[in-house]
Design goal:
- Helix content is 39%, strand content 16%.
- The chain has 522 residues and is an alpha/beta fold.
- An eight-stranded parallel β-sheet has the order 3-7-11-15-19-23-26-30.
- Strand 1 and strand 2 form a beta hairpin.
- The longest helix is centred in the C-terminal third of the chain and has 39 residues.
């Protein structure tokens, strides 16, 4: 629904009282309701820059502050009186009546300091699109129902210290102006969901000891250079989203001082596509994390200190859980989710390598390569299903023979596009993508003894005499280490098998050397 400006007030000589303009950006669908329930209609409207406003919506600090304060307090008192009348109603009627009653201050322009400290908002409070031109004090206030400050503008300091938000809290599109100011939510409690989407924090925000008992969403918000966000595992009891946040300042997450020595997960978080001007200002210390939280974020320079990672050491099952989590945020697109997760795991591997955490880097790299393999399998399955559908459609068709050429051609194209990668399969099974030295060592032993058995059972395989089993083991060892042992193999099949060992054994030895090297250095 589009927003439109109200029509300009009529000329001064008209007998019709000009309506309040409210605000340039007010929505046409809410004009009538605001004029009826928010505007100060018992006083003359004021003309400002050729436009008429009521006392509440007059957008200047030069309006009569005493009259404004009196009207504002009267409006608060009126809500209390209505609430007292509701208490006299039957209990089943009270719930409905309270739901319809609210503190309604939409688009109100507060010309001076506002002090509502310790105030108890017993029904819903709506300060949407309000402008606080000076300091706003809500410290120790209680919001018993929903509270909305969406699109509100705070030109001064904003104090929400020790506030109890019992209902839903909405600060979407709010604007906290000026770097020298602060916005303080410290020690506050949000019982239900808290929304901070698309908020601009030019002021310095504080969330020290703030507790979010349900979800909190900072999606698409902007934090200025002055921001120094510090959170612990005590802060969050529900889902947390910093998706697509633009961060210029600092962001810290660490374990609470009140917890034991075990690493603690910070519930379910989302840092997808977060953009940080200086990624090294993001710090995670002594917490348990998940790779799927960092999809689309360049995590190579983020500081991870004493952290551990879920699902990384669980093989395919762990990767599938991570992919499922990514897919839930990407409209269920599994192929895209595999690719995004693989890219994230490679970035985390680079981070670990740069900070000499080679064992952790190895786990990330194995998971990334395994993720790529699973993505190829998924594409193969998709292509195979397309192939079956294509053949099923045309074989059942009566014009099968006339369609045969076309069917075979299209089927061939589908098979040609199928992402089969034999080299990656060998790389995985022979050495765990160059990360599992023990697997590579076992396969090297298999190659050694397999060729030794062949030499032992082959009569006249090397010269006229049959080798003993011990001699065949030694002979195979010399071949695999390229020592050119005597007697030399005879022509034909014997020479082919001899040559195969001189190829396979050194290659497997190279994979073993690579895996051992990656355990200690890159």
């Amino acid at each position: 629904m589009t927003q439109t400006e109200n029509p300009k007030p009529p000329a001064p000589n008209t007998k019709t009282k000009p309506p309040c303009h409210i605000h340039d950006n007010v929505g046409s669908w809410e004009v009538k309701d605001i004029r009826a329930n928010v505007c100060v209609n018992n006083e003359d409207f004021i003309e400002y820059k050729g436009i008429h406003y009521c006392l509440f919506h007059l957008p200047t600090k030069d309006k009569d502050i005493q009259r404004f304060e009196k009207s504002f307090r009267n409006r608060l008192e009126k809500v209390r009186q209505n609430l007292a009348e509701i208490e006299k109603l039957p209990e089943e009627e009270q719930v409905k009546a309270k739901a319809e009653l609210r503190y309604d201050f939409r688009y109100v322009f507060f010309p001076s300091e506002l002090d509502l400290s310790n105030y108890k908002f017993e029904v819903a409070a709506d300060f949407s699109s309000a402008t606080f031109s000076a300091d706003a004090y809500f410290s120790s206030a209680t919001f018993s129902a929903d509270a909305s400050f969406s699109s509100a503008i705070f030109s001064g300091n904003a104090y929400f210290y020790e506030v109890m938000f019992s209902g839903k809290a909405n600060f979407d599109d709010a604007f906290f102006q000026r770097k020298e100011n602060l916005v303080n939510f410290s020690s506050s409690s949000f019982i239900l969901s808290a929304r901070f989407q698309k908020v601009v924090f030019e002021s310095k925000p504080y969330f020290v000891r703030t507790i979010f008992y349900s979800s909190v969403d900072f999606k698409f918000s902007t934090f200025s250079e002055s921001s120094d966000l510090r959170f612990s595992t005590d802060n969050f009891k529900g889902d947390v989203s910093f998706r697509s946040v633009y961060l210029k300042g600092y962001l810290f997450f660490e374990k609470s001082d009140n917890e034991d020595t075990n690493l603690t997960p910070i519930t379910n978080m989302d840092f997808s596509y977060l953009l940080a001007e200086k990624p090294e200002r993001i710090v995670f210390r002594n917490v348990l994390l998940k790779p799927s939280w960092f999809v689309g974020l360049d995590s190579r320079k983020i500081v991870f200190s004493l952290v551990d990672w879920e699902n990384i050491k669980d093989g395919n099952s762990g990767i599938q859980r991570e992919v499922k989590s990514v897919a839930e945020k990407n409209k269920g697109d599994l192929q895209l989710s595999y690719r995004l997760l693989a890219e994230t795991l490679f970035n985390l591997a680079s981070n670990s390598e740069e900070n000499n955490r080679f064992a952790q880097a190895s786990n990330f790299r194995k998971s990334a390569l395994e993720c790529e393999r699973l993505e190829r399998l998924y594409r193969q399955k998709t292509k195979w299903n397309e192939f079956k559908q294509h053949w099923g459609k045309h074989i059942i068709c009566r014009q099968f023979f006339s369609e045969a050429k076309k069917t075979l051609t299209e089927s061939g194209k589908l098979l040609w596009k199928a992402p089969i990668d034999f080299v990656h399969y060998l790389y995985r099974y022979l050495s765990g993508y160059g990360e599992k030295w023990f697997r590579a060592f076992c396969w090297l032993l298999v190659i050694w003894f397999a060729f030794a058995v062949i030499y032992y059972f082959a009569q006249g395989f090397v010269g006229d005499n049959k080798l003993g089993f011990g001699d065949s083991i030694g002979y195979s060892l010399q071949v695999m280490t390229l020592q050119r042992p005597e007697p030399r193999p005879e022509a034909g099949l014997t020479r082919v098998i001899y040559g195969m060992e001189t190829i396979f054994a050194p290659l497997q030895a190279a994979l073993l050397a690579l895996a051992i090297r990656r355990k200690f250095m890159r």
